[in-house]
Amino acid sequence: MSLNNSSNIFLDSVPSNTNRFQVNVINENHESSAAANDDTDPPHYEETSFGDEAQKRLRISFRPGNQECYDNFLQSGDTAKTDASFHAYDSHTKTYYLQTFGHNTMDAVPKIEYYRNTGSVSGPKANRPSLLEIHEQLAKNVVVAPSSADRVANGDGIPGDEQAENKEDDQAGVVKFGWVKGVLVRCMLNIWGVMLFIRLSWIVGEAGIGGAYYLISRSLGPEFGGSIGLIFAFANAVAVAMYVVGFAETVVDLLKESDSMMVDPTNDIRIIGSITVVILLGISVAGMEWEAKAQVILLVILLIAIANFFIGTVIPSNNEKKSRGFFNYQASIFAENFGPRFTKGEGFFSVFAIFFPAATGILAGANISGDLEDPQDAIPRGTMLAIFITTVAYLGVAICVGACVVRDATGNVNDTIISGMNCNGSAACGLGYDFSRCRHEPCQYGLMNNFQVMSMVSGFGPLITAGIFSATLSSALASLVSAPKVFQALCKDNIYKALQFFAKGYGKNNEPLRGYILTFLIAMAFILIAELNTIAPIISNFFLASYALINFSCFHASYAKSPGWRPAYGIYNMWVSLFGAVLCCAVMFVINWWAAVITYVIEFFLYIYVTYKKPEVNWGSSTQALSYVSALDNALELTTVEDHVKNFRPQCIVLTGGPMTRPALLDITHAFTKNSGLCICCEVFVGPRKLCVKEMNSGMGKKQAWLIKNKIKAFYAAVAADCFRDGVRSLLQASGLGRMKPNTLVIGYKKNWRKAPLTEIENYVGIIHDAFDFEIGVVIVRISQGFDISQVLQVQEELERLEQERLALEATIKDNECQEGSGGIRALFKKAGKLNITKTTPKNDGSINTIQSMHVGEFNQKLVEASTQFKKKQEKGTIDVWWLFDDGGLTLLIPYILTLRKKWKDCKLRIYVGGKINRIEEEKIAMASLLSKFRIKFADIHIIGDINIKPNKESWKVFEEMIEPYRLHESCKDLTTAEKLKRETPWKITDAELEAVKEKSYRQVRLNELLQEHSRAANLIVLSLPVARKGSISDLLYMAWLEILTKNLPPVLLVRGNHKNVLTFYS
């Protein structure tokens, strides 16, 4: 059903010199117009501001001769007593009446007594008529027009967005790995890296055998996971340099032995490292399949090298090896090496920093989770088994080398024990060798000095060299693959817009070639450092930060109690994860405090950046889960607290249809709900249930996303129903949660009511009745051009679609313009077919140009401009509030909230209230007192005393012509004919009904005259909505009232609260 208002233009106003409070004498019989008052000089009212002294002093101008009245008001702080002008109830009908505008009516004017607390010392509390009393049918002999239709069609049903066809990716040939090849092999190769063969012996020498166990047990934890961002990707890139430098060190040692140095050790490491990383880049670019095959070969070599080391420990040592510190298994050597002996300023954490990169391999499998067949099974199984195997290997190598090799050795076979020499507990001395001079001068051998100890101990040295090559190259290769994959995943998420360039993949496996180049450049930069002990702590710092975040992520996911977080690790505990995160952070600072500070500054900057940019991603994060839990807890907590009038805020259901189709209606509602109240954009789908539900579900996400994109703080809700009224009734009853339930219905004025089918009119008026039945306030918004721009959107979407097809066709032709023969033509038509282009002839361009050149009037440019009028900052002016009936204060509260917004802050409130001609000044003072107690600023107060006089003949004639097509005129027909017409057309306006509510009809027409006189230049008019008593006012007559009331005016808000207080002056 359309909820739009009719297209009208503002009439030219006639200048008037009459007093703004000019009052005509009221004729109770409404037969003649009143004479004008002789007052000519209108009073000037200063803008009133109510601060801390607002209730003590009210600045307001007054007419001559009324000084005493105002003085009494200022001294007492309360209004003057009213005359005996209301009756508690009618003695015959027991119905409560008030004299409003000098006439008996149930609808009450605003009075301070309605807002007092029970037992107030300032005066008695009065109860305004309830919404039920003024809305429900009275037991009168009045001919009524009952509803005649139960089913209606939604005339403004908004077609859902067509779902795009799903395009399946070509999966043929994509390489996927199992848990052994994809995870276990990778993790073992990374953990058995350069540290095992080149630095483990030195670590044992520094930290001792027991220290090595402590380091290993705390380094190889069970943490694993996916990528955590830039730092992790950068750490993997730097790891490439570390492994390549380790490889280059071994090669340089071999060159030293053969006296084949190229330049010097440092530059040789740089040269060899640069050549090596170029070769590894070529292998990586060749694809994951080649890389995986290379990894398997390298693992075999590595296993043989480790076995060769253990075999070498039991082969009897010769004199040359003994001079270099290797004596096979000796209890004295084991005891001597068990404790730490740090040298050259080294300490536990400095040694830890160098060793820690060995533990980084535990994520080698998780880093390529996208290339695994079953990541959920493969990652935990492969990683945990790799951790177990490599931990045993590290411990075994540490114990064996610590039990076989002394810390310092000279390498001189002649350094044997002289007879009678005191060994002072030295293990080497006890075994016949004197290495005491190593205490005073540097030696080249032993655990502390020789990084190639494992080669010396092994049964066949070249195998260890091959193992070192295997370990370093495999680890470098794995890191060279991991870093671009992690970085590509990060770029695909589009978190950092500037990095989108690196998201592109190539080939069937979507290889990140651009990421490979970036990783290569980073690795080359660190290879030039050419010092393994310098690079390793850098990696440790970044990996510790990564593991800290991974541990905290596990803890946070558990703390959020998300049902989707179901860790399969049997002995997992969230507090262990938190402890691990804290421990990682602490170790970072112990290793190098300034590097840790820099790392966390970078992390904090990235966090702030992402928070500010709010990328459009949805990962189902634990933060999202925790937000949900927090919101749920807060919502439940709200239900334990009773509502209080001080906390009232408009919580609105807005019948926008799709939110993008009636933007102006949503904008004006959002203006008084943003940051203060609930706003739900609602749409009703009418028709066959299956089709409606499909259309509704397909558009839910897009329409909520539109609200978010346009920064509108509102929700979108939709229902499928048999008729529009049933759908709205469901929304009114079921929307919201706990205390966050709508209390106000906002709808657009039905522009086409005179041309619309009867069922639509009954539908429209019916939802207003339903809202009142549910004690929900109603706001009807009318603007001159109407709200619905769905036709404009359809034209724009069609233009965009045709333009996209044109560009796609041009691109296809361009790609194939150089091709010759039938193959090129077939390729052209094949690509064009994929684009769903039915015609590829030049005629398409002509049709597009024809549509693009359509006259702007085809989709009403004025309507487009009107749809954005509430998005703009409003010019300096007024919001005129015609608070004619006391509805609890909603009619006053909404415009007050508007004045708090930046777009409306230049608009001042002018208050118009009905009153009696003999109490103009007293009622003005009373209203000023009430507004001051509410602490609501206003620019002026107008008391209108001539509301109930008859309108002029021209205005009344317009109203009569408006309702003429819908009148029954039964009084002009005989009884039989009249009864027949009533049965056939029960919706028509009867003469009896029109006569019974003639004075109310007069009032609507007269109010429009007053609005034209006083508020033609206002930015916005807020007006009390008349209530149609059920069973007494026909739908068409009520629509005529609304039409004549708001005709030819600026934007109008017709407001009616639920007659419960929404304002209070009590603290």
Automatic annotation (TrEMBL):
Where in or outside the cell it occurs: the entry states:
Apical cell membrane
Name the coiled-coil region(s): 792-819
Residue ranges of the SLC12A transporter C-terminal domain? Answer: 662-1067
Primary location group: membrane
Where does the Amino acid permease/ SLC12A domain lie? 210-653
Q: Specify the protein's topology with respect to the membrane.
A: Multi-pass membrane protein
A GO molecular function for this record? Answer: ATP binding
Q: Which GO terms describe its cellular component?
A: apical plasma membrane
Q: Does the keyword Ion transport apply?
A: yes
Pfam families tied to this protein? AA_permease, AA_permease_N, SLC12
A GO BP term, please? chloride ion homeostasis
- Give the reaction(s) catalysed: K(+)(out) + 2 chloride(out) + Na(+)(out) = K(+)(in) + 2 chloride(in) + Na(+)(in); chloride(out) + Na(+)(out) = chloride(in) + Na(+)(in)
Give the Amino acid permease N-terminal domain ranges: 90-157
The transmembrane residues are 196-216, 228-248, 269-288, 294-315, 347-366, 386-406, 513-532, 538-559, 571-595
Annotated region Disordered: the residues are 31-52
Family per record: Belongs to the SLC12A transporter family.
Q: What is this protein called?
A: Solute carrier family 12 member 3
Q: Which gene encodes it?
A: SLC12A1
